[in-house]
């Protein structure tokens, strides 16, 4: 038993691996205070928020080498390693992009300080979630993301925004309550909250029981809600349709990747290196198949661009789950690559959906003929969609190629038919997704519309979009650079 | 292999030429876009000039690479963990020749376009996209790697979309370009899956490396069939062929390019490159698809009235022959036909374009208006357009496969390969052979029907027009292509396909018995006779006109000296010849109707049906989405409890 | 001290009751009450399990944090309910379904 | 049967009966009162499970805090509508069946289960300095979740203020 002083000492040393999060926490407070002072100057709070995210990002990069040796922080509440650091970097970049997108949107600016503070809170929660290795921290950081998200979803201040917020809140709280209930049983079954502790896995391997399965199923339900996987997905299209577009872009990436990070850790423990009596690979494969099917097939029907992206987000969760379901170290690496490509592609699409939304185009038909007038935005949007579909020459293709490769390796290792089925379904769904992802470009380029507008190609969107497009093309033409970086990540508990 | 090795085998001059052949079309694309609006006429000098340079480079490449070890240049593209992705160039005899044919035909089409497109408002875009189109095709030709091929494959699809929809003010053109784009995407989705299967199985995309790998037949069947899906889309095979006739909405030189050298031939070329991937089971599918396409295309061509649509369906039918030959395990025969076809089909399209151009000019002067592409309105143009007539007849003869023309040689090669195939394989292989024979018969029929309808007989709508031959920039390319449609360039012996090309573009197998050659010559001449006999008949009324010709034919037979046999001969003629002509006519009508029905009901139905099935699944998955939050929670809880109970039990 | 199973049965009962309340009640505030029931079921479990491990405080600490989170959820939830009420003039969740394409 | 056990079953029964009553309650106000009963009964159970600090928090925060807020909400919504709040049911059968299925599955799974205990550790004196133990734990092992809840509370407050502000519901 450590003495109190020793514990304080270890807490103090833990702060060394916790700098970005400290920056974020301080940033939240500063933004709130700044909002009180600069009530009328949304630009300043935006700048402040961007600076906070940038600082967090820079600290992540500075400490990158230090993260290479995993260690526990704060009495093993958190685990600092390069896997979570990589995800945190993507999350920070996504936060920055969201801030840039928001500056173009007048709606959230009425409560700008609150908005940016909530954004920073989600980022902080996502940071904590990917690092968590205690069930208590998982729950707290998940709630941190969720509660802020419920409010952010309502930031369009319209009837629909409120409705989306209510649905998100009710669905989210029920799933997190179910997850918590599952956690409470896992605690009872193992006697510890630290799911990386050896006794946690030992108890689960040595005393498998129906209750363990039920508890874990409940716990997974909370994660699946967070990453918007079926069958915990019904909130997604409603929220995506109602929330402000920058917030939707944010939701499509940050909570999803954070949930994915912790899900990867958690299922790895459950699977216990294949010693588990129950086959969790089966569950993940089934959920992935279900998400792919539900997301892609429902998306075919949509008429509203953002709602369509909601279903697409469900389907993308299915693809992301493929990387976990392979249960191979290489699969995790490929998952990180795919996640990066997904984040970039998703932001390209939402950046331009936002651009067109502000011009008054939100239903699919209304995009008719926009490609002739707004050439570059439409071309960039097309590239974003191509990446989400997974066609060359974009990073989406490379990512899909990688995760299906790892799935094939998993099939050859395990020989389970469900893995093969997932592969078949995944490939078939790639085809299905082609049909709806290309619908907006189809309307934009093929249909004729009457638009009289003068366009200025030198806009903020186009500069940011060009950057992202170059990024996504780069991920195709030279994925080795990023992959080399990812390959240095050691994913093991 | 490092670049150094290859430099020992090939001079740096060779490498520069290869680079030039590839880069000049791209340069043309870039430069054409940056010519200012005011000087847009300059593109019509610049682009053909650059293409000419590219053609010269390609000729040097062909000369130097021919019968040398394949030139390969490869570098690591990127590597992940223990997998290395490479990108590179592979030039063997077949790709060097293809390189030359593509650049050459493209150059001629560029020159022709100077005249044809003169005065077009979007000249810059036109020439830019032609250059890009050519570049993308060259990329497919020289890539050593399936992934790279797929990238260029998509670019070809994109640029063809731009070109078919060049006159995008016309709704039909916009619709056609959309159709081409979307149907090609359907095929490409299959291709993509095939690529993933190849990668997951072999962990490489490099074609030569794949060739060396021991591959599991079951998976390779699946992968090769998926890749074949891409071919089906790009090369307009059954059932994804509908875009090709529609694509006639584009400018005629573009059609020539699409049909002769780029786009549709890409699929066949890919089949040749990746032929080793195809297992016998997959090859059977390929052969059957090719035969069906050839048959449908040939009969559809018979019943068309639009001059360009006849040619489009004929392309489809010829592609079907090539694909069938691929399926029969004779890639060199298919490639030979690909090369011969490139010249004569380009020539045919340019001739058709010349007719259209000339008549448009004439219409413009005398202010009359009718559809110049409708062959029912044409006739007797031989006197007004003598040069075009000769060009059309020469290239048409090559298409029909008359002896002394290039088409005869390559069709002969395909027939010989199929004879060999049906002798050695399953019993049903004969059916494919018979279908192909029938197709070559029908080919003669529709080709000469076209020639006779347009150039012979009475002048109809054109009687009052003053028609003059197109300018020399348009005639010169036609002449060159027509010259390239005679046998001499492909084999010294007009009755033996086994010439310098055939023997060196693959592991040539000499199936050649004189029998096949003679039989096919006789068969084609018989078809020519039938075509002549039925030359004046309109397809709609041919059943009525039937009796007269048969009587004539029979009367001639009666006049034969042997009176005792006269009656018998008469009856035999009645029975056989009449029956045959009847059957042909009936078959034409039935198949033409069938094709139409097939096009509407099955192909569109298939596409609609697939979309419909997907949509109905979607409406089911979506039906849980009533908008009521408590219902959402209920369904989620329901799903979880069902899952839990199912696992507990 | 009663066997831990009896705590758990009550927890399961509260959890199921909470779920039924959430699904069936046509009033958002009632739904919030059901939610509190579900959270309390977990808390009961945590405290009960902690009594099996007297040396550690993990379960109890977790339960404390859950209570704080429940406070936050109730605050945010009520704020959302009030705004829905202002804009839709109803507290019946079913009536708030304009997003149902 | 000793006194704690009697008390235990009393609290259990109270919570269960109140929960059943909640299922059938048609007034939101009574519903809230029933939830208070459940929360108090649970607080009693926490005391019996040696979690006095949690029990006190339960009474102070839940019964004293959350429910006051909820009752405030009930008052506010009924004042806005001016109608008495009678609650109808939706999906009563399927909702009930799903709930019962959950209960059945859970009871089945719990009944089969034995839980690991750690008897070896000497029981720390939970009676007189429970609060101190909790306090030390909060400041040492649990300092991170403690601080996290701080930020969570702050943001929940700000979020609730944004959502509930009158300004927010104006039409744009």
Automatic annotation (TrEMBL), chain A:
Upper taxonomic lineage: Bacteria, Pseudomonadati, Bacteroidota, Cytophagia, Cytophagales
Ranges that cross the membrane: 12-37, 43-64, 85-103, 115-131, 138-157, 169-189, 210-229, 249-270, 282-302, 308-328, 335-355, 375-397, 418-438, 463-486
Cellular localisation: Cell membrane; Endomembrane system; Membrane
EC number, as in UniProt: 7.1.1.-
Start and end residues of each NADH:quinone oxidoreductase/Mrp antiporter transmembrane domain: 132-418
Role according to the record: NDH-1 shuttles electrons from NADH, via FMN and iron-sulfur (Fe-S) centers, to quinones in the respiratory chain. The immediate electron acceptor for the enzyme in this species is believed to be a menaquinone. Couples the redox reaction to proton translocation (for every two electrons transferred, four hydrogen ions are translocated across the cytoplasmic membrane), and thus conserves the redox energy in a proton gradient.
Stored Pfam families: Proton_antipo_M (PF00361)
UniProt KW Transport keyword: yes
Listed name of the protein: NADH-quinone oxidoreductase subunit N
Entry keyword annotation includes Transmembrane: yes
Catalysed conversion reaction: a quinone + NADH + 5 H(+)(in) = a quinol + NAD(+) + 4 H(+)(out)
Membrane topology: Multi-pass membrane protein
Subunit structure: NDH-1 is composed of 14 different subunits. Subunits NuoA, H, J, K, L, M, N constitute the membrane sector of the complex.
Keywords from the named record: Cell membrane, Membrane, NAD, Quinone, Translocase, Transmembrane, Transmembrane helix, Transport
Family, as annotated: Belongs to the complex I subunit 2 family.
Main location: membrane
From TrEMBL, chain C:
Catalyses which reaction(s): a quinone + NADH + 5 H(+)(in) = a quinol + NAD(+) + 4 H(+)(out)
Coiled coil regions in record: none
Enzyme type, top EC level: translocase
Enzyme Commission identifier(s): 7.1.1.-
Keyword NAD set for record: yes
UniProt entry keywords in alphabetical sequence: Cell membrane, Membrane, NAD, Oxidoreductase, Quinone, Translocase, Transmembrane, Transmembrane helix, Transport
One GO molecular-function entry: oxidoreductase activity
Record carries keyword rRNA-binding: no
Membrane topology: Multi-pass membrane protein
Subcellular location: Cell membrane; Membrane
PANTHER family per record: NADH-UBIQUINONE OXIDOREDUCTASE CHAIN 4L, NADH-UBIQUINONE OXIDOREDUCTASE SUBUNIT ND4L
Subunit structure: NDH-1 is composed of 14 different subunits. Subunits NuoA, H, J, K, L, M, N constitute the membrane sector of the complex.
Protein function: NDH-1 shuttles electrons from NADH, via FMN and iron-sulfur (Fe-S) centers, to quinones in the respiratory chain. The immediate electron acceptor for the enzyme in this species is believed to be a menaquinone. Couples the redox reaction to proton translocation (for every two electrons transferred, four hydrogen ions are translocated across the cytoplasmic membrane), and thus conserves the redox energy in a proton gradient.
Protein name per the record: NADH-quinone oxidoreductase subunit K
Organism: Chryseolinea lacunae
Gene (UniProt): nuoK
TrEMBL record, chain D:
EC number(s) per entry: 7.1.1.-
Top-rank lineage group of the source organism: Bacteria
Membrane-spanning parts: 6-25, 32-53, 59-78, 90-111, 142-164
Subcellular location: Cell membrane
UniProt cross-references to Gene3D superfamilies, sorted A to Z: NADH-ubiquinone/plastoquinone oxidoreductase chain 6, subunit NuoJ
This protein's UniProt keywords: Cell membrane, Membrane, NAD, Quinone, Transmembrane, Transmembrane helix
Catalytic activity line of the entry: a quinone + NADH + 5 H(+)(in) = a quinol + NAD(+) + 4 H(+)(out)
InterPro entries: NADH_UbQ/plastoQ_OxRdtase_su6 (IPR001457), Nuo/plastoQ_OxRdtase_6_NuoJ (IPR042106)
Topological type in the membrane: Multi-pass membrane protein
Top-rank EC class of the record's enzyme: translocase
Family of this protein: Belongs to the complex I subunit 6 family.
Primary role: NDH-1 shuttles electrons from NADH, via FMN and iron-sulfur (Fe-S) centers, to quinones in the respiratory chain. Couples the redox reaction to proton translocation (for every two electrons transferred, four hydrogen ions are translocated across the cytoplasmic membrane), and thus conserves the redox energy in a proton gradient.
Annotated protein name in UniProt: NADH-quinone oxidoreductase subunit J
